[in-house]
Design a protein that fits this description.
Layout: E1 14-22, H1 25-28, H2 30-37, E2 42-48, E3 51-58, H3 61-67, E4 79-85, H4 91-102, H5 120-139, E5 149-150, H6 156-159, E6 171-177, E7 180-186, E8 192-195, E9 200-201, H7 204-212, E10 224-226, E11 232-234, H8 236-240
Parallel strand pairs: 5-9
Antiparallel strand pairs: 1-4, 2-3, 2-4, 6-7, 7-8, 8-9, 10-11
């Protein structure tokens, strides 16, 4: 007899809720509300009739909602909804999502997604790539092949030295610009390939320009590699020993 595979049940984030409850419940039945939600944390929403007015989070839902009968939100809402969250870990992020989607009138600050990456630049690049393909298909021109090496003028002191032979094949190099971290790998022929994207460049400076969008720069004092001790060191150190 074949045993049925047991499906592991995941725990719900929301463990209880009340929706569209009149604000007067705090005046007439305060003890009842206290008995139900005392000590619980979660997300709450204030409504002016059927229109969402304000969204907030609280570690003590009853106290926080009731306080809005006395602060700047007084007389601006008639009903509330609340959602008890099992753990505090994601309360702030859930609140931010709701604020970014609904952006209620009573909220001054819009929700922030601190660890979320803005995908707009990626979308723009991909849309640009698709547009180039369609345009070239119409006018009969070929777009630049993916992975083509970008070349440019190199300073005289850099011209004789590339990364070829200075690092292990496919060794990573790293940089940081405006709070963002970037990395690339050095191919056996000394060409630098950005990760991700696979754009290729024949000098550290051109690779650095691609990251920073600057017109000129010294890539040898921009990119770093990990030495034998695992410490990040500027690649300029490599050519000095050559």
């Amino acid at each position: 007899m074949v045993e049925k595979k047991r499906i592991k049940k995941t725990k719900s984030i929301v463990t209880g809720h009340l929706e569209k409850i009149g604000a007067k419940v705090f005046d007439d039945f305060s003890l009842v509300i206290t008995d139900i939600i005392k000590g619980h944390q979660g997300i709450y929403a204030l409504f002016k009739k059927d229109r969402l007015y304000y969204v907030g989070l609280a570690r003590n839902l009853k106290r926080r909602i009731n306080s809005h009968n006395k602060d700047r939100h007084q007389n601006k809402w008639t009903h509330f909804s609340l959602y008890i969250i099992r753990k505090e870990d994601h309360i702030k992020e859930i609140e931010s999502l709701v604020l970014r989607i609904a952006f209620p009138q009573g909220n001054i600050v819009r929700g922030k997604l601190k660890q979320s990456k803005d995908l707009s630049p990626l979308l723009k690049r991909k849309l640009d790539d698709e547009w180039v393909k369609k345009r070239d298909g119409i006018i009969g021109k070929k777009s630049r092949p993916a992975g083509k090496i970008r070349k440019g003028k190199i300073n005289a002191d850099n011209a004789a030295i590339t990364l070829k032979g200075l690092l292990r094949n496919y060794q990573r190099i790293y940089c940081q610009y405006k709070g963002k971290k970037y990395k690339a790998k050095v191919l056996p022929n000394g060409i630098i390939e950005l990760i991700p994207g696979k754009e290729r460049f024949n000098s550290p400076s051109l690779a650095g320009i691609a990251v920073t969008k600057k017109r000129t720069m010294n890539g040898w004092m921009f990119w770093k590699y990990k030495d034998k001790n695992g410490k990040l060191v500027y690649i300029d150190k490599l050519r000095k020993g050559k």
